[in-house]
Amino acid sequence: MKPYFKIITILFIIGLVKESFAQTPLFRNYKTKLFIGMPVRLKIKGNVLAERYKTAISNSYYDDPYIRKFHGKGGLNFAGHYCFVYWGCGSDCQHGAIVDLQTGNVYDGPTAARQFEYKRWSRLLIVNRPGDKSDCAVCQPEYWILNEETKRFVKIK
Questions:
Q1: 119 contacts 27 by C-beta, under 8 angstroms
Q2: What's the pLDDT at 18?
Q3: Which of 27, 49, 70, 94 gives a 20 to 30 Å CA spacing to 88?
């Protein structure tokens, strides 16, 4: 009876792992067309978020070399025609926003405990990317999709 129990247990674990991977959103499932052209001037005035975090947003939008060193490439780096920017908001806290390269408008984004992962050709945003080995209770991966019409992020997992 013991060999059957081991086999059943192994099959159950394999099923759980396969289901877990099958449900994980992938960047390739949310592809979008890339914007080809020159970005417009960043619009700061009248936008509370942009006015409050002007330096962080401007430096990423205009792809400042100093910011690139810590945050990676600025400019077009998210969802086809956006610049995803983020800055620290305390210990284990990163706040994000997006800037539309076609309009210069700034929109609010999710907050992360650790880091963000994104691609220039995908609308998927991973918050607290998987693989963090710390004991952080609020560092579970989250998956967000940008809704193009509302310019808001929708949590999908």
A1: yes
A2: 45
A3: 27
Domain chopping of the chain, boundaries: 25-155
Residue 139 and residue 27: Cα distance in Å, rounded? 20
pLDDT of residue 65: 84
**Alpha-carbon span 96 to 68, nearest angstrom:** 15
Q: Which residue, among 63, 44, 68, has the nearest Cα to 54 in the 3D structure?
A: 44
Structural contact between residues 29 and 147, judged by C-beta atoms closer than 8 angstroms: no
The number of beta carbons lying within 10 Å of the beta carbon of residue 112 is 24
Q: Which residues of the chain have pLDDT under 70?
A: 1-22, 132-135
pTM flag (> 0.90): no
Q: What is the CA radius of gyration of the chain?
A: 19
> Residue 26: CB partners within 8 Å, gap ≥ 6?
124
